[in-house]
Amino acid sequence: MSRMIEPLALGRVIGEVVDTFTPSVKLNVTYNLNKTVSNGHELMPNLITSKPHVDIGSEDMRSSYTLIMTDPDVPGPSDPYLREHLHWIVTDIPGTTDASFGREIVSYETPKPVIGIHRYVFLLFKQKTRKSVSPPTSRDRFNTRNFSQQHGLGLPVAAVYFNAQRENAARRR
After folding, report:
1. Contact assessment for residue 164 and residue 42, using Cβ atoms and an 8 Å cutoff
2. Confidence of residue 4 (pLDDT cuts 50, 70, 90)
3. Which residues partner with 57 through β-bridges?
4. How confident is the model at residue 173 (pLDDT cuts 50, 70, 90)?
5. Confidence (pTM)
6. What pLDDT shows up at residue 171?
7. Strands (DSSP E) found in 9-166
8. DSSP assignment of 70-87, as one string?
9. 27, 161 in Cβ contact below 8 A?
10. How far apart (Å, rounded) are the C-alpha atoms in residues 73 and 161?
């Protein structure tokens, strides 16, 4: 298992959200210009209120990508019976650019975890053609696997996730 995949498997992103894949594109997600998302690291809710800057490190500008941000831990990680909640979709992002060059089909929704520590997952898919991805009917009970299959996206080409919990939640040391 590659070093990029290992934290995704340990964090159960692989298995609960997507199947095993081989990363082939660099994905860099940054909040507030200086808080880079790293697998499994915690970000405080006050840092994630605005949509992040997302760089796509593809070699080919002619390729198009879809970015999905989802929370698989709704309403809480111990019983995620409402899995998943969709927070953001940007499609038709040209390779070698960033998400601001894409077409936002589901607007960014600020994460607001209520119960426990939630994982917020960014998944990048390579599109076969531009304008081939349409918005889902609902943010609730979103299913990344089904959405990917319905739009012919296949497996992700990159993924990264962070953890967040309610601002005033008790922190364990």
Report:
1. yes
2. low
3. 26
4. very low
5. 0.93
6. 55
7. 26-31, 35-36, 41-42, 53-57, 64-71, 85-94, 103-106, 118-127, 158-164
8. EESS-S-TT--TT--EEE
9. no
10. 12
